[in-house]
């Protein structure tokens, strides 16, 4: 046995020696290793942010494309079921209503069973996080799966509940960025601070918008306007690079899937480019912007009121607290019954998808002329999208007006559903319908055009209405560029921007934005902007709203005083330290952890406690203080820019009070 073991060991040694000695072309191998090392050094010299942002954009594009593919299959299955069920009215009604009801109920139950943070848009909570307030488990990876699966089921409901995907995609992109950041930290063994995390979250927002519309430039600008109170210019390239990667890959996947021949705009339009609009039409575009602003104010007020009412009403509050799927079933059943095509749905073109709605509104033809040349329902002409808006007993003016009236309250009701959903795309479509109605009205008033020979193009008004209404609801101007970029119609940029500015001027004067209103109703710890620009608001000083009853510790404070301070304020994280009770000059702050360690080290073994805070605790110096005569605007700017939670107020170096986010919010 010993001889066999020795033979085996010798054989192993011979094999190892042979493998070590047989290395052909040593010079070529050394050259190749040197080249690989040089490439590795150059790649890391550029910075790992590039690879992180590229991966984020590509992954989000793949998620967006696969989601759209699955949603399309599910929606086509619903259409097939409704079409093949026959002419039995009861069966057609059940197939139309039960399909979205089941999907919406599953979306609510599945997402809420995993985490309650998966419901809604996600943008209000993300705004709160970017303000420096961390919400627990909001960016956890378990929320990722719940959001994606729930969103697919929500979108598959189609025009029944009429909800979108922009907000959830921003949330999904933020979760993916947070997870990739943790992976990068574990690989590089480097500490990732909060500033680095915020930089990646800002880039993730742009990717979320860009992968929905395939519009990287407006995606970056929209994410900055909607979610960032202050923006660091150094983060600009991160957002554009990640958004460009995501948008390019999203449109490239459509080419690979044979949906398109090349990379083009998401919504195909054929609006006239040689003479897009008459100069005198600018006044009509401004009037359209004012109308969109007024309607947006009404929408924002009613939406915020209904969201609060649903939470306060005993019946609906109980359902939302204990039986959310039941609440979803009741609301979706109501919406589906109203959109049932043989009933009221025939006056709202309820069988169109959200993309088909936009394609019909952006049509470059005038529906009045098409209706005269090829009446709806004529067997000779092809069934085009515009014919969905024509009814034998009602003109398309009536169907558009009925659509606007019904969708106004149906959209508001749908925002109360506790499922993953976005709210930007519905208001974008609603604004397009508003603009189409205005454009068709102008075209009817001026059949030959304001200048004879240059007819009115209602599709341009639909484009302006979509940008103006969505911009007014979200308080953003970048929707003008978004509308142009998503349709490829940059020739209409001037009238669209004029309409957006007019709509924003009205909406921002009277109502908070959609996302700020949701923050108010949900009572998230978010610092709202100061809406008043009156001179009197600049005369509001810190001494009028600061907290004067601040518990401080002297440097000579002993065991008993520290124990009393910790017992009296269980929620305080940092305590101000002053020289002495007689001379309250602010020295710095000491953390609660330090004070607990002080008590544990000086109160053990039954000995008489000794030592003081000044001698035995680490006192952190204070870099920023407020004066009692600092204005509210300056204080608000500091809290917003530096993401602060608390600032101390001193007069001549002596501590006189403190200001927290709660005091600033109340003021």
Automatic annotation (TrEMBL):
InterPro entries: CBS_dom_sf, Cl-channel_core, Cl_channel-K, Cl_channel_volt-gated, ClC
Membrane topology designation: Multi-pass membrane protein
Annotated SUPFAM superfamilies: CBS-domain pair (SSF54631), Clc chloride channel (SSF81340)
Gene3D superfamilies (UniProt xref): CBS-domain, Clc chloride channel
Highest taxon, organism lineage: Eukaryota
Transmembrane annotation, as ranges: 50-72, 148-180, 201-224, 236-256, 277-306, 326-349
Record keywords, A-Z: CBS domain, Cell membrane, Chloride, Chloride channel, Ion channel, Ion transport, Membrane, Metal-binding, Repeat, Transmembrane, Transmembrane helix, Transport
One matching Pfam family: Voltage_CLC
Entry GO terms, CC: chloride channel complex; plasma membrane
Protein name: CLCKB protein
Protein source organism: Crypturellus undulatus
GO molecular function: metal ion binding; voltage-gated chloride channel activity
Localization (cell): Cell membrane
CDD domains in alphabetical order: CBS_pair_voltage-gated_CLC_euk_bac, ClC_1_like
């Amino acid at each position: 046995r010993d001889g066999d073991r020795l033979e085996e060991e010798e054989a192993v040694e011979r094999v190892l020696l042979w493998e070590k000695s047989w290395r052909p072309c040593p010079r070529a191998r050394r050259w190749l290793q040197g080249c690989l090392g040089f490439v590795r050094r150059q790649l890391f010299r550029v910075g790992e942010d590039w690879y992180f942002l590229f991966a984020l954009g590509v992954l989000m594009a793949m998620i967006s494309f696969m989601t759209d593919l699955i949603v399309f299959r599910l929606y086509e299955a619903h259409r097939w079921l409704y079409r093949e069920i026959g002419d039995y009215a009861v069966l057609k009604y059940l197939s139309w209503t039960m399909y979205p009801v089941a999907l919406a109920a599953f979306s609510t139950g599945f997402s809420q069973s995993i985490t309650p943070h998966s419901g809604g848009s996600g943008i209000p909570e993300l705004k709160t996080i970017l303000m420096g307030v961390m919400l627990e488990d909001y960016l956890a990876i378990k929320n990722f799966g719940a959001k994606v699966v729930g969103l697919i089921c929500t979108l598959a409901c189609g025009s029944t509940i009429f909800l979108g995907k922009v907000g959830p995609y921003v949330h999904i992109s933020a979760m993916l960025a947070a997870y990739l950041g943790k992976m990068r930290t574990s690989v590089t063994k480097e500490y990732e601070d909060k500033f680095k995390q915020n930089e990646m979250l800002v880039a993730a927002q742009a990717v979320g918008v860009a992968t929905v519309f395939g519009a990287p430039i407006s995606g970056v600008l929209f994410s900055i306007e909607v979610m960032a109170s202050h923006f660091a210019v150094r983060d600009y390239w991160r957002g554009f690079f990640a958004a460009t990667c995501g948008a390019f890959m999203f449109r490239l996947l459509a080419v690979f899937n044979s949906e398109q021949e090349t990379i083009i705009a998401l919504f195909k339009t054929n609006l006239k480019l040689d003479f897009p609009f008459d100069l005198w039409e600018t006044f009509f575009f401004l009037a359209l912007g004012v109308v969109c602003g007024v309607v947006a104010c009404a929408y924002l007020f009613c939406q915020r009121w209904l969201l609060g009412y649903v939470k306060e009403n005993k019946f609906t509050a109980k359902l939302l607290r204990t039986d959310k799927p039941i609440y979803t079933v009741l609301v979706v059943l109501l919406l589906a019954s109203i959109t049932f095509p043989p009933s009221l749905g025939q006056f709202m073109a309820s069988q169109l998808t959200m993309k088909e709605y936009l394609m019909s509104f952006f049509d470059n033809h005038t529906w009045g002329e098409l209706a005269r040349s090829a009446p709806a329902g004529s067997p000779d002409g092809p069934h085009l999208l515009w014919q969905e808006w024509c009814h034998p007993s009602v003109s398309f003016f009536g169907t558009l007006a009925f659509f606007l009236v019904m969708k106004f309250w149906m959209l508001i009701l749908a925002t109360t559903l506790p499922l993953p959903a976005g709210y930007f795309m519905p208001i974008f479509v609603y604004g397009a319908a508003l603009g189409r109605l205005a454009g068709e009205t102008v075209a009817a008033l001026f059949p030959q055009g304001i200048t004879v020979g240059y007819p009115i193009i209602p599709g341009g008004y639909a484009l302006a209405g979509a940008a103006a209404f969505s911009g007014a609801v979200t308080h953003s101007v970048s929707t003008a560029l978004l509308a142009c970029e998503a349709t490829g119609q940059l020739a209409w940029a001037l009238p669209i921007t004029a309409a957006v500015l007019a709509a924003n001027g009205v909406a921002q004067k009277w109502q908070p934005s959609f996302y700020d209103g949701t923050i108010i109703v949900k009572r998230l710890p978010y610092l709202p902007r100061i809406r008043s620009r009156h001179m009197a608001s600049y005369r509001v000083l810190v001494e009028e709203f600061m907290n004067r009853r601040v518990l401080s510790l002297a440097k000579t404070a002993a065991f008993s005083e520290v124990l009393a301070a910790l017992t009296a304020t269980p929620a305080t994280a940092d305590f101000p330290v002053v020289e002495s009770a007689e001379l309250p000059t602010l020295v710095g702050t000491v953390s609660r952890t330090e004070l607990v360690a002080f008590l544990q080290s000086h109160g053990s073994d039954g000995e008489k406690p000794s030592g003081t805070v000044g001698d035995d605790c680490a006192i952190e110096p204070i870099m920023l203080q407020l004066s009692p005569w600092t204005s509210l605007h300056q204080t608000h700017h500091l809290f917003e820019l530096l993401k602060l939670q608390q600032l101390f107020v001193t007069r001549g170096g002596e501590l006189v009070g403190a200001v927290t986010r709660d005091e600033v919010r109340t003021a």
